[in-house]
Amino acid sequence: MLSRLFNGGTEERAISYQTLFALGDGFAVSTNAGTVITQQDSLKIEAVYSCVRIIADSISTLPVDTYLRYNGTRQPLRPRPQWLDTPESGVSRIEHFQQVLISLMLNGNSFTRILRDDQGIAALVVLNPEKVQCSRDQATRRPIYVYDNRDVIQATDMIHITEMRLPGDLRGRSRIDLIKENLGLARALEEFAARFFGQGSSASGIIEFPGNLSREQAKDLVDGFEEGHRGLRRSHRPGILFGGARFTKTTVDNDAAQFLESRRFAVEEIARIFRVPPSMLGVTTPGAMSYASVEMNSIHFVQHTLRPYLEKIEEGYSRLLDGRAFMKFNVDGLLRGDQASRYAAFSTGIQSGFLSINDIHRLEDMPPVEGGDAYRVPLANVDINAANLAEIDRKSIIAQRLILSGFDPAAVLASLGLPAVEHTGVPSSGLQPLASVNPADPQAAYDVK
What we know:
Blueprint: H1 2-6, H2 17-22, H3 46-60, E1 64-70, E2 73-76, H4 82-85, H5 93-107, E3 109-117, E4 120-127, E5 132-136, E6 143-147, E7 151-154, E8 158-162, H6 175-178, H7 180-198, E9 205-208, H8 215-229, E10 246-249, H9 259-274, H10 291-317, E11 325-329, H11 332-335, H12 339-352, H13 357-363, H14 389-404, H15 409-416
Antiparallel strand pairs: 1-2, 1-11, 3-4, 3-8, 5-6, 6-7, 9-10
């Protein structure tokens, strides 16, 4: 049949390969688990849907702004580009970046078309990645994109972001296509669970009858038994067999088949594929639900899962800005710990001299205070403009000891590098008047009269 269909012998081909694949799911390749996994259908798996939503919502709702680096400092770029707040008419910034991330996670590619007018960038449109074809111009070696088999888009009018690109490839690879066997097993477990409870949880087996039955009698016997037990509401109702018939159970209990354990393992496997901590999906693995481990998993989630997507999106969209300007997401809110940890970190910053009071107020969205821009030095915790006070205090103590020992005050100040200060002329009570010293008896000056 296939030979006649495609080759046709002497006949002309009746149907093309493109027509077959355009028919859709009927010709989709199934997995070894017997399920068909496509990029769209993968969202029907609960764990996949949860992972995609967690990553897409976490990034798309982050604050984002454009900046200009000047003399080593980052300053906000103003006026703020209009396309950053409204990428497309009727599409908000959050929805726009949601589409970008969903396209990346499912297809491995994100294609954002740049529409321009006389005033610059008019709109940014996220295209369906399954309708985009990529190739290179043979002369310039620049990428060329064809959308929906009719629109040719140059590389200057396209933001192409890939998740994982193999050497020599222009398109990124879809994780759904690469690990569809794992997803197929998870889909098969979900379908099995749905059919298991939909058809009755304990009424699968064989009815043994001692005599011979006709086809109609056997069908009536099975239909009558299923009528009383099929479905979730009838799954635990008692059954009655007559005429010497006996029911033999053929199913395996969920515990014996490790059904529940297999479903939990499938969720953990999908979490590893998307690099999402299992605690975010509600999986209670031993030793992974303590406060410390959950907090550390959240930090790892930002560093190893969200950061690669953020960097790629920032790099792709920064091409729309001129010169040294760039786009940047703010992830400080995701990395903030509890209140006690933040205040301890702020205290360390103040004592180390790299944070001021107003710096902390800006981080905590608090109004600035008068005199709060002063930085303080370590240990002494004084105004940085008076940082030499501690050194002067130590020199003063040394000068005091030397003067009390009988050294000339002016000479002491000069030797320590301290400025000369006016004296009241009244000697300290700790000093004794200088007696005339007899060279023959120098100890006489210290004798008590």
